[in-house]
Amino acid sequence: MAVHTWWQRRAQRTRLRVGEVIGASLCDGRDDRAEGELVERVRRLPHRVAGELLFEQIVTSGGQRRRRLVALHRACGFAHEAVRGLRAWRWRRRVKALRLVGPVASEAEFAELLERAKDAPLVRVLAAQSFARLGRADHVVTLLAAVKLDNPLMEAPLAMALEQLTTEDLGRVLARWDAFVCSRVQRRLLITATRRGAVGFRKRVEAAAQSPDFELRIGACDAAGNVDAVWSRHLLFHGLRDIDWRVRAHAAKRLGRCARGAAIDSLAEALGDSAFWVRQNAARALRRCGREGLIRLARAARGKESDPFAAQVAAQELHRERAWSRRRPRTMPIVSGPGWQPPV
After folding, report:
1. pTM for the complete prediction?
2. How many structural domains does the chain have?
3. Count of CB atoms within 10 A of residue 36's CB?
4. Span 12-45, pLDDT tens digits
5. Separation of alpha carbons 188 and 179, rounded Å
6. Phi, psi of 44 (to 5 degrees)
7. Domain-embedded: residue 179
8. In which element (H, E) is residue 184 found?
9. 171 and 115: one domain?
10. What DSSP state is assigned to residue 107?
């Protein structure tokens, strides 16, 4: 314990010393000679600690400060060491190296990053993040075209890569729709394209809604939920009648954003669905639809004999609404009826 505490204090003192050297050097008006002296001073510091602290400041900085930090990072050789890690035998080490290369990558690393096109799926997605940040939509397609996401958790780094593209580049990637072999990649592309308003997203969403792959039909429902239009609402109504319960559950969840008469009627009907998550999402969506949605939930909660499952899920959402109502006071209750108590 004593040795561990001593080591922690030593590392903390080293980090403070490195931070003082780097922080004092980033003032405006420094010439090339001063920059060269700074590189020499950083190189004389503990190598690992200096590299970690520089990388942390690069990730949390922006603008001119970030550019100067990246230049210092490259001049001290930290970027070159991270690039060498891309050739590691173990794919986990390559992933770690890519996380260090991504924020500081430039055209000098294009060749190394493109070699990851046949690597593990996570490695390819992280390499695509670097190209997306640099605005190279063609290389993003090259890396993601053959990738297959077997784990749903892989969609988070993929979404981050697509979010870093500009709207124009996202439209170019969407135009290469047929190049992608994984339906999860296409689904995430649809969701991002509709939220950002990329060119040609409506045609892709409507085609995905008719796909035999349920992943694409789910993506069509999620994408349609990002658009407030007549065609998107009709697509969600169609999704509520899908043969796959997962598609119906996503359609019910997205319909909660459109608090209109037809949507409320469809959600009230979905309370009697045979799948639990469809009923659950429909009840939550009705709760978000305001007064009319709460009235429909109160009616369903009274029908314990005709449909006990719908009554159970409706009573659950009404209980949640009562709990929230006590936190946000109102002058009068939204809905009345058996099982409903006005807020205190």
Report:
1. 0.77
2. 2
3. 11
4. 777 677 666 666 555 544 555 556 777 777 777 7
5. 15
6. -80, -15
7. yes
8. helix 183-196
9. yes
10. G
For residue 295 the two structure tokens come to 């009235």
Q: Which of 53, 51, 44, 41 has the alpha carbon at shortest distance from 12?
A: 53
CA distances from 216 to 129, 190, 191, 246, 323 (A): 23, 9, 11, 11, 37
- To the nearest 10 degrees (0 to 180), the angle between helices 183-196 and 155-163 is 40
- The structure tokens listed for 262 are 């037809």
Q: Which two tokens stand for residue 215?
A: 């992943």
- The model's pLDDT over 258-280, given as tens digits with 9 standing for 90+, comes to 766 788 888 988 998 889 999 99
User: Distances in Å between the alpha carbon of 156 and those of 151, 162, 184?
Assistant: 10, 10, 11
Give the DSSP per-residue string, 117-138.
GGS-HHHHHHHHHHHHHTT-HH
Please indicate, yes or no, if residue 12 is contained in any of the structural domains: yes
Q: Is the residue at 323 inside a domain?
A: no
Q: Which of 49-53, 220-224, 299-303, 321-325 has the lowest mean pLDDT?
A: 49-53
Q: Are 113 and 96 in contact (CB under 8 A)?
A: no
One domain for residues 71 and 94: no
Joined tokens for residue 220:
């069509």
Domain range for 29 = 1-76
